[in-house]
Amino acid sequence: MLAAARRHLLLDRLARDGRVVAKDLAAELEVSEDTIRRDLRELDAEGLAVRVYGGALPASPAVVDYAARASVAPDSKSRVAAAAARLIVPGMTAILDGGTTALAVTAALPRDLDCTIITHSVTVAASLLEHRADVIVIGGTLFKHSAVACGARAAEGALEVSADVFLLGVTGVHADAGLTTGDADEAAMKRTLASRSADTYVLASEEKIGAASRFGVLPLTEVTGIITDADADSAAMRALDAAGAALMRAG
Amino acid sequence: MLAAARRHLLLDRLARDGRVVAKDLAAELEVSEDTIRRDLRELDAEGLAVRVYGGALPASPAVVDYAARASVAPDSKSRVAAAAARLIVPGMTAILDGGTTALAVTAALPRDLDCTIITHSVTVAASLLEHRADVIVIGGTLFKHSAVACGARAAEGALEVSADVFLLGVTGVHADAGLTTGDADEAAMKRTLASRSADTYVLASEEKIGAASRFGVLPLTEVTGIITDADADSAAMRALDAAGAALMRAG
DNA sequence: GCAGAGTAGGCACAAACATGCAAGAATGGG
DNA sequence: CCCATTCTTGCATGTTTGTGCCTACTCTGC
Q1: How far is the CA of B140 from the C1' of C26 (A)?
Q2: In this complex, do A72 and B29 lie within 8 Å of one another by their Cβ atoms?
Q3: Strand D: which bases are under 7 Å from protein Cβ?
Q4: Sign of the four-CA dihedral A67, A73, A78, A80
Q5: What is the pLDDT of residues A50-108, one digit of tens each?
Q6: Do the beta carbons of residue A165 and residue A201 sit within 8 Å?
Q7: CA–CA separation, A234 vs A244, rounded Å?
Q8: Which of B20, B52, B102, B139 could link A137 by a cystine bridge, Cβ 3.0 to 4.6 Å?
């Protein structure tokens, strides 16, 4: 194997796996670890990778985190996100809400999926840069707490789009209070987005079930489904079920 | 798992969950608690986390990026960015372009500065989340290469704003070709933004001087100033000076 | 102020490392 | 076509780094 081709492969692996282990690659390419180490040292010198003890990491920290996340046991948030990501199929147009669970959806979304994602969250948009999906950003005044565009201009922008599915993030899913969040403006924005989509699914990781915040977004029965991995036998889940919520099992 | 990747993961968890418990992470990553504790101790020493009894908490963001900045020599880009950031004074409304140099401006901007920043870049908007500044995002179709909103909707959004100063990023600053960039749509967007601002300054780090790209943005003489730290005696800089460009020394 | 969890420092071992060297392959001029 | 030069690779070397375990100490909640 040519040395240059090997370097190229190392960079490929860095991009794909988010890391390279000198020992493993040496075994795989049937060269000595010294050779791999030398390659990595040079890639580091060129700024294309970062040499670390045991191998190398990509020069871009974002890729590292992506890979690190994928290598550990998924928590409630990522299980819900993975289930939600499966709802987005090729050719579809989806609206993605802001918040950490929506961000987890972008991480769970296949990078080569051909679809259109509409979002009012700058962090969600930024994390979709590495994806093939078309991204449409809804602008407006940035609400710092959850990194989403809000206000009159954002609401106006939301009215100009429409989608097949809306993945809605909330802070509380409660049998009596319904779907709630912590900010009035944000609640209005979420309502507007829901009205622009054929279907709406709620991203409800464990800690949201049974919780309620100050501002109502929608009644439980106004959404297509509530994606959660909370224990179906818990009191809060039974209450939701009794209230007519369309609970969907994640993971 | 590579030790360096584990550190990354710890930082990621700190950012996501707001805390790290040594015992839990040791179990999750299948290493001893000692190892996690050592990692946390080092992150603390680097100022990237704060060690507490039982685990660690995130360091204040201000300290974190001070630590990050201190570890690298300021390059041309950050010198230009620092000079540009000084143009933004309290009470001002500034438009920030996309690109890595504009991103460096956000890093150079004091976190407690009271101002309004308008941007069509999602990465710039995301990095302003920790700042006191009001942020207005211009939405539209995301142009992945430079992480900015482009297209008809973005142009429309740009026409609705106005500002005191526009910090313009380009890929080429050339005596004959003027200010240029690599995409036609982006060039048009930059022109529109310039028309909405009283003053326009160009972020021209070293490597841009004397370079030219395919699409023209503006003639050299149409901007208020060109901020650069390139050698004033170089041929390219002399040519720019002769062409009537208002060169401003950075650093 | 006591019990139990958490911690730092020391120790030992294994893995990973840089370095120098020599053999072999590729390259380039004569 | 051949010889000199350069580049690459693998190996042996002594060194450094990361890790787990142990012990003595410290912190926290009751």
Answers
A1: 54
A2: yes
A3: 8-12, 17-22, 27-28
A4: positive
A5: 999 999 998 876 666 666 666 655 678 889 999 999 999 999 999 999 998 999 999 89
A6: yes
A7: 16
A8: B139
Report the pLDDT averaged over residues B119-130: 94
Residues of chain A with C-beta less than 8 angstroms from the C-beta of B106: none
pLDDT tens, position by position, B129-158 = 989 999 999 999 999 989 999 999 999 999
Interchain contact, B4 vs A53, CB within 8 Å: yes
B57-108 pLDDT per residue, tens? 988 776 666 666 666 556 788 899 999 999 999 999 999 999 999 999 999 9
When pLDDT is cut at 50, 70 and 90, the band that residue B186 belongs to is: very high
Domains defined along chain A, listed by start: 3-68 (1.10.10.10), 74-249 (3.40.50.1360)
Strand partners, A173: A179, A209
Q: Which nucleotides of C are covered by protein (CB under 7 A)?
A: 5-10, 15-20
User: What number of other Cβ atoms are within 10 A of residue A162's Cβ?
Assistant: 14
Tokens of A162: 């429409």
Written as six digits, the tokens of B174 are 């050339």
**Mutation for A interface: B1, B8, B77, most A CBs within 10 A:** B8
A97 is written with which tokens? 């809400």
Contact: B4, A128; criterion CB under 8 Å = no
* B135 contacts in chain A (CB < 8 Å): 141-142, 144
Is B155 in CB contact (< 8 Å) with chain A? no
ipTM for the whole complex? 0.76
Chain B touched by A115 (CB under 8 Å): no
pLDDT at A160: 94
Q: Cβ–Cβ of B125/A142 closer than 8 Å?
A: yes
**Segment (H or E) for A218:** strand A215-218
Cα(A166)–Cα(A194) distance, rounded to whole angstroms?
A: 6
Q: Report whether B250 contacts B80 (CB < 8 A).
A: yes
Conformational region of residue B35, where left means phi above 0, alpha means psi within -120 to 50, and beta covers everything else: alpha
